[in-house]
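Chain X:
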Amino acid sequence: MKALEDLKFNATRRHFLSAASLGIGSVALGALLDPSRLFGGPAQAPAGAAPGTTAGGPLTATHLVPRAKRVIYLFQSGGPSQLDLFDDKPLLRTMNGQDLPDSIRKGQRLTGMTAHQKQFPLAGSHFDMARHGQSGAMVSELLPHIASIADKLCFVKSMHTEAINHDPAVTFVQTGSQQAGRPSIGSWLSYGLGSDNANLPAFIVLLSRAREGDQPLYSRLWGSGFLPSQHQGVQFRRGKDPVLYLGDPDGLSADTRRHMLDTFRALEEEQHARVLDPEINARIAQYEMAYRMQTSVPDVMDLASEPQSVIDMYGPEVKTPGTFAANCLLARRLAERDVRFIQLYHQGWDQHGNLPKDIRIMTRSVDQPSAALVKDLEQRGLLEDTLVIWGGEFGRTNYSQGKLTKDNYGRDHHPRAFTLWMAGGGVKAGLTYGETDEFGYNVVRDPVHVHDFQATLMHLLGVEHEQLTFKHQGRRYRLTDVHGHVVKALLA
């Protein structure tokens, strides 16, 4: 008899949960599609979220008063040489060709590409550096346009990381872990802060390259990991179809598409009521976003309304879709439309050999557009609440990889010290922070770890990095793992 009563109880409980799930699923879906219509207020927090976090909608309250609303991250993939661009070391020219002292290297590990070299000849830069602006920031002759805005920039010369090879290093900067599978920065911010534009994704990715043969990039770098999949980055491509599979087939009208989506939504809600899979709701949200993007994407990609003065500001390559210059202008247009996180990946900085020639190619491709983006945002009143970031996954060695000659040298990966710069979004303009030793090998003052950088980025957006978490497989994860502190000296 007791077994029968238990069976009846379990059946009743299953019936209740099944019936209730339809209502719960509808509420969650409503939050994903239009949080403002959910009970007339912000969406409710999903499981695993930090207090105040919502299901893809705005925070009920940010942890802090945000200094920035959005981010444009100009990621220089491959590892730009800080010693040839920003971190001037005259001693390397004086000691050019001499072996790196063991007292400086201190037995630190090397990549497989130079570990078996018998000597590590110091390579002084072939390019002059000078101080610019009232701040006196050091910038290479290769970057005259960036040098012209030196007083608007915040340079961090003491960045360091553990990863020594490209894939784990890029993964680490973008996700907080060297191992693949964690959510990217843009996904975390999409999840925690949502979007201020219902017709565009909160996280958009743009790719470019200035020369062939560089390290590959993988879509998992802008993936959502264990977060709901609508928070993954959406890649915009060059050409007439910037977002794959967004357009309707020939002969399909807008009314027919709308009817299909409504029917699909009803079927998916019915399935969700049976299996309670949150990815079903995420899938519906993605289809609805794609429907709205059919109108919004052509508008943002159309540069016809841009005045010639703006086109000229970004340089001649801005007219070629898919170039870094074109992507910088597109990033500004996306920022105007309140896209939360805009990620540009620019490939070509992995210069193990032939650096003097190749770095000229790279700097020509980024110098004018990078500076133009900062100036363009400022003149439109957007720089104050837009954080612009420029930098790669690690630096380059002070010694030459392979043979050092009078006219040529290369540099291997160097995780112990590298440089990035930021502008706008609440960072201190005209600041140079951190210092490396006279060989440019080790950080000797104010070190900034990758996790510190990530914590500071989130702080600028009003998010406490220790509080924005997601429970996955029994553990609460966050972007900075169990590390990181906000570098308050960088804040304006």
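Chain Y:
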Amino acid sequence: MSDLSAYDQTQEAGFGDYVQLLKPRVMSLVVFTAMVGLIVAPVPVHPFVAFTAILFIALGGGASGALNMWYDADIDRVMRRTSGRPIPAGRVSEGEALAFGLALSAISVLMLGLAANWFAGAFLAFTIFFYAVVYTIWLKRSTPQNIVIGGAAGAFPPMIGWAVATGGVSVESVLMFLLVFMWTPPHFWALALFMKDDYSNAGVPMLTVTHGRPATRKHIFVYTLILVPCALALALSSIGGPVTLAAAIVLNALFIRGAYRILRRDEAVAEADRYKAERGFFKLSLAYLFLHFGALLVEASLKPFGLGGW
């Protein structure tokens, strides 16, 4: 009877569960920034090569997500935000997630190398390693700087896209990297502010846990100020132009204003209105990055008509 009961309670994994392992929301950011990096590069890429390259970069990003969920299954079970994921919910086993992530990693790296060039393939392999090992296994549970250093993994995709086209690295691709890299801490720390006790319950040394919320608010504001020159430098580079500069000025003014509001907030007031300003800043941070890279895309599309760029 107990065997039948256990059988009835077993949930079979569906296609959607394996899609969820790939962290599709994070993958959308990876795909978009990588695509922009590829398109704004000075070397034209055949549309079919470009499509396949972005596909395999997306698979590589998804592989990183699956490996992250495999290793973090124990803390995902504790956190309210992640308890419904396929592994803690019991729909996918940890072994299946590990095998899935490793298989996708190998396929994505090999196919990107064959479709584009081996430098881009090696770069993708390093990015997967950085996210799965350096960030997930090492940094995430050992230091409050986990998001700062680990943010590099999410900042590499535009450089990979650029490498697909050029076979190398340049000042422009590094500036795209810096924009995402410096954006990541205020983005995630804003999330940590209104996630309440999730990170402390899971034993993750997020800055809100180790240094407190007032210190986190100060860090958000400081990193926002450091982010501004990175955005302006990118706008003034060879892949920028008037559209990108205008977007950078407006978006960074809004971002500084939002960060300053968070800095001045009292914790009691924030809790009373359910962290309205912090949630608003988090949503703004998503728009901030997509609009910056969208402006680069607009700039590149205008250049053939003699309108974009400097």
